[in-house]
Design goal:
By secondary structure, the chain is α/β, with parallel strands linked by helices. It has 2 domains: 44 residues, no CATH class; 256 residues, LigB-like (Protocatechuate 4,5-dioxygenase, Chain B). It has 12 helices and 14 strands. A hairpin with a 4-residue loop joins strand 1 and strand 2. The longest helix has 15 residues. The N terminus is likely disordered.
Length: 313
């Protein structure tokens, strides 16, 4: 059981305690922390029990890290979509920016904000997103996945693929987050199948978020078009349209075998890490659920911001 108290991010860990001892421990907390909302404690400590409501799914095209500090239409889109989702008990995020050999989940109580980029203004490096972790959820995730061994990682924190978008959904940093890594040694089918093993968490108030980009070719960015509100090369438009059509028609087989979708998609997905988070989200979709696209634009020629929400029809 974890008690997370906002303010100075005081964390008190209580293991195998009876209710009486738990309440006694709260009495020992300095008075400066007692003014916190008791619901904030309950939110972090409540168990992941089944609920009647199935949590939606999100795939977010995260784009530039600068979206963490700028105001633009994509940030507005993330913020608006967050208002349509029940506030989760926790988040499992699959980010393009955590690749590992093997599959891991973060299991730290207080994950660091990782600034895994360079060449940006100091203001961006100063950003801290102090959302708590949840080692209990990490352990449950490890135990739930049966088709591969999942390691518990205590060194990784929240990379910018995670915090730059989730901070726009939940700016108070009051929802616990764990990250699930992308095993770079595995084929797309592995990731799609692995996602299905996470389905039980949707009934436990956990929001599952994939963060990447459908079209992501940094080597072909039109640097002179960075300030354009929308700009895409012809091949990027063709690739984006082809993938979106397959998403909306539920043709997951072709999306898993994206390497066979032609030269335009090969240019859009030169490396798999930004595409694979999409497969995690699609792998969790129920047959009767609908897909809604938002932030559906191409920028800088070779990047797409397209995002999608999967929810009940």
């Amino acid at each position: 059981m974890i008690v997370y108290i906002k303010g100075n991010y005081y964390i008190n860990y209580i293991y195998k305690m009876e209710r009486r001892k738990f309440l006694e421990s709260l009495a020992l907390i300095p008075i400066t922390y007692v003014a916190m909302k008791i619901n904030d404690v309950i939110k972090i400590t409540e168990p992941f029990t089944n609920t009647e409501e199935l949590m939606p799914l999100l795939f977010l095209g995260h784009g530039s890290p600068m979206n963490a500090i700028e105001e633009n239409e994509f940030v507005t889109g993330w913020r608006d979509i967050g208002k349509t989702i029940p506030k989760p008990k926790a988040i499992i995020c699959i980010s393009a920016h955590w690749e590992t050999k093997g599959t891991f989940v973060t299991a730290t109580e207080k994950p660091d904000t990782i600034h895994d980029f360079g060449g940006f203004p100091k203001e961006l490096f100063n950003v801290q997103y102090p959302a708590p972790g949840n080692p209990e959820l990490a352990k449950e995730t490890k135990d739930t996945i049966k088709n591969t061994t999942v390691g518990l990682d205590t060194k990784w924190g929240l990379d910018h693929g995670c915090w730059s978008v989730i901070s726009r959904l939940y700016p108070k940093a009051d929802v616990p987050i764990i990250q699930l890594s992308i095993d770079y040694s595995q084929a797309p089918q592995y990731h799609y199948n692995l996602a299905k093993e996470l389905s039980t968490f949707r009934n436990k108030g956990v929001l599952i978020v994939g963060s990447g980009n459908i079209v992501h070719n940094l080597g072909m960015v039109a640097w002179d078009k960075l300030d354009a509100s929308e700009y895409g090369f012809d091949w990027a438009k063709e690739a984006s349209d082809k993938v979106k059509k397959l998403i909306l028609s539920n043709d997951h087989k072709q999306l898993i075998n994206y390497q066979s979708l032609g030269k335009e998609v090969a240019l859009a997905v030169p490396t798999p890490e930004h595409y694979l988070p999409l497969l995690y989200v699609l792998g969790l979709k129920k047959e009767n659920e609908k897909v809604s696209l938002f932030n559906d634009k191409l920028v800088a020629g070779s990047l797409s911001m397209t995002a999608l929400k999967i929810d009940k029809a």
